[in-house]
Amino acid sequence: MIASHRSGEAGFVAGLESLAFGVLVFVLGTLAVVNAWAVIDAKFATSAAAREAVRAAVESPDAGAQPARAEAAARAALAGHGLEHPAQIVPVVVGLARCQEVAYRVRTEVPALLLPGITARVRPFVVSSEHREVVDPYRSGLAVTQGEAPACGF
């Protein structure tokens, strides 16, 4: 006796709907990952900008040129990372004396990806980085009183 095997649509339940739901979950998950990566990328960019701002400030020839050089270096670092969001470059500690600490903070906002229905409740992500350096105790070109020895404490 040969059993006949029929292939019909009996027992086919919710196949197409689960496929559409799976695609929806995949698309929303991808958008969440892309948004998270944008925040991580902005953190890398602000960290590099703060580091370059401090480095330019510490190496500037005089205190008058220090803020402009720091801002230009930070903007160049942000442009190099492709960050198109406006960023605030704030000097935390500024000065140009041997052993003095110099610090800059760079802050930007990364807009959240907007999805229909949740646009009103989502605020942009704030990304901030700060970097500090000490002016070289043996740097030439800075005014020194006679017999002064640098006392950096290290």
TrEMBL record:
List the transmembrane segments. Answer: 20-40
- Native organism is Egicoccus halophilus
Q: Which UniProt keywords apply?
A: Membrane, Transmembrane, Transmembrane helix
Task: Write the protein's name.
Answer: TadE-like protein
